[in-house]
Amino acid sequence: MTHPPLFPRFKPLEIRDREFLQPRLWAYQPTTSEFTFTNLFIWRRRYNLSWCLADDCLLLLNDSPSDPWFFPPIGPGPRRDLCRRLLAWLKEERHSPDPRLERADRRFWDEVAGTGDLIGEPVRDHFDYVYATAELTRLGGGHYVAKRNHLNSFQRSHRHAYEPLTPERLAACLELAQKWCEIRRCEDDLSLMQEWEAVKETLAHFQELRLTGGAIYVDGRLESFTVGEKLNGDTVVIHLEKANPEIRGLYAAINQAFLETAWQDTAWVNREQDLGEPGLRKAKLSYHPHHLEEKFTLRLAQ
């Protein structure tokens, strides 16, 4: 890209922007799940996402006509003055009813805190769950008795095989995801419909996004798949994980097999947030996270 847009000119996020943006995201070495190009791209419609550069930082705008907000600037510090500038622009130029930066990581909050004119609020629903890869691979100890039981039940009861996700297997993944959506009645739930769109985007652009995935076949049929990539030098982030909900232990099986096969040399696995959904929170806590990666919403003090 010869001439990237400069603040306050924004452009919608497109797949062709990956070549320019991914190196900037990787250089930041993020610890929160939002800041891979894949995550931003597959959820771009949900976030009404546009981008530009300012002060050598990447700006990501939720370009909602009625309630715009920014992600934290991604790039070198200090970013405090830029933060103030963005919040003032939202208020004065976009007439935002609630000028704010969302999904700010701890690094950014520590950098801008203590000024008196910026206030930050931790948002528990957005916290990422981070696990030790070795623990999720071994499932050892008393914490994981139930998981081992589910996994052993699956392995005893089904003829199965784990395979890396390759382009010729993507159509079967899409078919499984559609079946999952029908069972869960996605059409009645906006968040599930948005997730369905993200799944389709991921599979359609799997090679362009340079993703890694795995699948489990049960009796010769693809019944589970997962997709992830490196978030930073020692962490993998899991973007998608789908399984036939009628097969007991299949989620535990795909989770373990993917990490053991593709990521055994990566110390940590980020399995993203729960968005406050009680069932999802219970499931993520049941794997006993090593820690939660905090995220904050920032505003100017009144």
Topology of helices and strands:
Elements: E1 11-12, H1 18-28, H2 37-42, E2 49-54, E3 57-62, E4 69-70, H3 80-92, E5 101-105, H4 106-112, E6 118-122, E7 128-132, H5 133-138, H6 145-157, E8 160-164, H7 170-184, H8 190-204, E9 212-218, E10 221-232, E11 235-243, H9 250-262, E12 268-270, H10 278-285, E13 291-293, E14 295-300
Parallel strand pairs: 11-12
Antiparallel strand pairs: 1-2, 2-3, 3-4, 5-14, 6-14, 7-12, 7-13, 8-9, 9-10, 10-11
Helix pairs in contact: 7-8
Outline the structure in words.
- With 302 residues, the chain is α+β, with helices and mostly antiparallel strands.
- It folds into two domains: 11-125, 3-Layer(aba) Sandwich (Aminopeptidase), CATH 3.40.630.30; 128-272, Gcn5-related N-acetyltransferase (GNAT) (Aminopeptidase, 3-Layer(aba) Sandwich), CATH 3.40.630.
- The protein is built from ten helices and 14 strands.
- The strands form three sheets. The protein has a seven-stranded mixed sheet.
- A hairpin with a 2-residue loop joins β9 and β10 (221-232).
- α7 (170-184) packs antiparallel against α8.
- The longest helix has 15 residues, at 170-184.
- It starts with 10 loop residues before the first strand and ends with a strand.
